[in-house]
Design goal:
It is built from 3 helices and no strands. It has helices at 2-29, 34-69, 73-88. The two termini are 32 Å apart.
Length: 89
């Protein structure tokens, strides 16, 4: 049940980010100051990073934990390493 609660929080966070991106698009379309747009882009980037961290925490707590319990820990760790490299770079 907790896992679903966390997923709902992540989905809600992504929905807010989606709305923020739409606002930035409207700012650009209406000719708003570039500096203002860049500040908002930085805010979205930061929000996406926080969302990614929330997904990572959820993955570690649930998916990797389950894999360890099922004796598939090394594959889960290897998959996580690949995902982390993509997330960080």
């Amino acid at each position: 049940m907790k896992h679903q609660h966390v997923n709902r929080k992540i989905v809600n966070r992504l929905s807010r980010i989606e709305g923020h991106v739409r606002s930035i698009k409207e700012m650009v379309a209406s000719g708003r100051d570039c500096a203002e747009v860049l500040v908002q882009v930085a805010a979205v980037r930061s929000a996406l990073d926080r969302a990614g961290c929330a997904v990572l925490e959820d993955h570690l707590e649930h998916c990797v934990g389950e894999a360890l319990d099922e004796g598939k820990g090394q594959k889960a760790i290897d998959d996580l390493k690949v995902a982390l490299k993509r997330f960080i770079s």
